[in-house]
Each structure stands twice: as C-alpha cells, then as structure tokens.
Amino acid sequence: MSQLVDRFNRKHDYLRISVTDRCNLRCVYCMPPEGIQFLKHSDLLSYEEIEKVVKVGASLGIRKLRLTGGEPLVRKDLEVLVKKLSQIEGIEDIALTTNGIFLAKKAKLLKEAGVTRVNISLDSLRPDRYKEITRGGDLQRVLDGIAASFEVGFQPLKINTVLMKGFNDDEIGDFLHMTIDQPINLRFIEYMPIGHADEAWKTGYLSLLFVKEKAKQLGFELEKSEDVYGNGPSDNFRIRGAKGSIGFINPVSDHFCSSCNRLRLTSDGYLKACLYWDEELNVKNYLDDDEKLKQLYFKSLINKPENHEMAKVMNDETQSHQPTVRRMSQIGG
Ligand code: SAM
Ligand code: SF4
C-alpha cells in the first residue's frame, strides 16, 4: 500500500528513473539543434545510489520502475543496475524507454537481468525522415531492436510516436497499419512544451483529436480496447481484428493529472513530482540516511500541483507556477 499520497489523494507507486542525460540522437522535439551541455559523469547518481533511493521508495510503496534518459542504453552496463533493482523487495515491474538503436545488442541481457517490458520511440517509418527527425538516426537499427524485443519476449511491446504538424502527420495511416499484423501497442503522444515554450512548439503541436479524425477518413474503424497492460495514461483502441492496439496520450489537450501516480528521479539526483513544473529536490545529501530520504519523498509531494498548465503556453497565458527550464532529455521523459 503506497504511503506516498498527496493532498489530492493521488497514490504514487511509480518511479521513473533517468540514468543519464546523454543521448546518441538529437530528436528535434527533445533537444535544441546546438545540443545540450551534458552533465559530467561524476554528477550522475551511481548505480548504488540509485539502488538506495529505490529501496527507500519501495518501503513507501513504490512498486513500478521505468528506466529512461537521455538514452538509457548509452549508460554502461545498464543490466547491472536492472539486476540490483529487480532484487529490491516490493519492486514488481521494471520497464525501459529507449530509442531502440542499441536494443538489438542489449535485449537479451536486459531481459535476463529483469526488464519486463520496453517502450521504443519511433516517429517515422521512412528512413530519410527518421534520420531528419532524430538528426542522424538509422531506422533499420530501431526495426532490428523491435524484432529483438519480440524475440526475447518483452510484453507488451509499446511504440511511442510523438506527432508533429508538418513533420510526420502524413504517416498516421502507416503507423495505424503497423498494428494490424504486429502485437504492438502503438501510442501517439502529443508534442509537449517541456523546457521550450517556443514558436517551434506552437507550430508543431497537433491535438490527437486530429488523429482520430484522420483514422476515420482513411477508413480505419477504431474500437475501444481495455486489455493493454501498463501504468500509463493512454486511452486505447484497436482496429477490428488487429493483433495490436493504438493508444492516445493527450497531455496537452486533455491532461490526465488527476490520476498521476508517478515521481521522477533525474540522472543528477533530483526528485521531481511533476514533469512540467520546476520544483525538484536533491537526494544527494540524504543518501546515507534512510529516514531523511523518506522525508524527502514526502516533501516532494507536499507542493505537487493539481495539474500542469501546458495548454496555457499556446496563448502565452500566465501560469500558476514556474515551468521547468530542463528539456525532456534532461529530466527523463
Ligand atoms: N531516449 C529514450 C527515447 O527516446 O525513448 C528515452 C528518453 S525520451 C526523453 C522519452 C520519451 O519522451 C520519448 O518517447 C520521446 O519521444 C518523448 N519526448 C521527448 N521530448 C518530447 C516532447 N517535447 N513532447 C512529447 N514527448 C517527448
Ligand atoms: Fe534522445 Fe530520446 Fe530525446 Fe530522442 S527523445 S533526443 S532519443 S532522449
């Protein structure tokens, strides 16, 4: 039973852990073209330190973990961390979010160490465009990562697709098609203004209502699907008779904050109760004292706002708190 309950009675049993802010790609919606000043290796939490934070979290009711980044698979020997985390009493599920580039090489090791499932980010099915969106990525390596994930039995296999106006909104039909023969959960995600409430976001943002309309126009009949396993806020559908399913994650147009069950740990050791706002607490000074670490978990929830206010960015409206200036790769998406 989670003891991590906030003032809006939201129970927190899910911790998303960023293991690095580094990445082998530079996706246009996640990093600025000039790149980002990466942390020094010595600023990152070590695997032992992450293990400590999770142990205390598990004693307070954290049950599910997700490893993310930056790109988690650029951190050396990630399977060593997975093994440690999988042995912590109370932890039931360890998932991974990855761009998939190194997954073919690592899938088996990760599965053996205790990763239960993976989400793979994939924003275009066209090699040239994939390269453009990721600023250099090789689509075939991601497809090989997906194949390897099926082989080792990651279940369910989720694909994350951020839709952006003028970038990949003409591929909606191709993405929907992917779910017919493959048992994947393809999740369309709205583009969020995390750390960059700028014109690029305003012009690139696309409400997922557009996808539902587009699906109809293309002749796909989507029926509601309740059988997708996960912790997420995704609203799931299925094309009749398809092996896979389609999820809609609408953080901007229809936020799901009332059911938020997640906390985040950044790679440099900050606990964040909300992805959007800037409030964060550093765990580094409390690593030798479980009781103080517990108090830090509670403290992180005291001021957790009822919801984010991403949608206000579109009209430059005043917001009730200070939004984060960190980009997604620096927090852990
Ligand atoms: N590198 C890994 C990957 O790409 O899957 C993990 C980290 S990445 C920050 C986690 C997720 O955040 C990815 O699915 C990515 O597409 C998503 N993401 C990054 N920036 C975003 C933004 N501005 N809006 C919506 N999703 C974003
Ligand atoms: Fe890297 Fe993931 Fe951000 Fe793309 S979305 S730049 S793969 S961290």
Describe the structure.
The protein is of the alpha/beta class and 333 residues long. It has one domain (14-331): TIM Barrel (Alpha-Beta Barrel). The chain is 29% helix and 17% strand. It has helices at residues 47-59, 78-86, 103-113, 127-134, 139-152, 172-181, 199-204, 209-217, 290-302, 328-331, and strands spanning 14-18, 64-68, 93-98, 117-121, 157-163, 184-190, 222-224, 235-239, 245-249, 262-265, 270-272, 281-282. A twelve-stranded mixed β-sheet has the order 7-8-9-6-5-4-3-2-1-10-11-12, with helices on one face. Strand 3 (93-98), helix 3 (103-113) and strand 4 form a beta-alpha-beta unit. The protein is globular and about 60 Å long. The protein binds S-adenosylmethionine and iron/sulfur cluster (SF4). The site of S-adenosylmethionine has 19 residues, from strand 3, strand 5 and helix 10.
What does the radius of gyration come to?
19 Å
Please, what is the average pLDDT?
93
Shape: globular
Number of strand elements: 12
**Overall CATH class:** Alpha Beta
Distance between the termini: 26 Å
CATH fold title: TIM Barrel
Which ions, cofactors or small ligands are bound in this entry? Answer: S-adenosylmethionine, iron/sulfur cluster
Strand residue content: 15-25%
For CATH, the homologous superfamily is named as: Aldolase class I
* Tally of alpha and pi helices: 10
CATH architecture: Alpha-Beta Barrel
For the report, how would you describe the main beta sheet? 12 strands, mixed
Q: Name the helix and strand elements from N-terminus to C-terminus, one letter apiece.
A: EHEHEHEHHEHEHHEEEEEEHH
Helix content: 25-40%
SSE-based structural type? alpha/beta
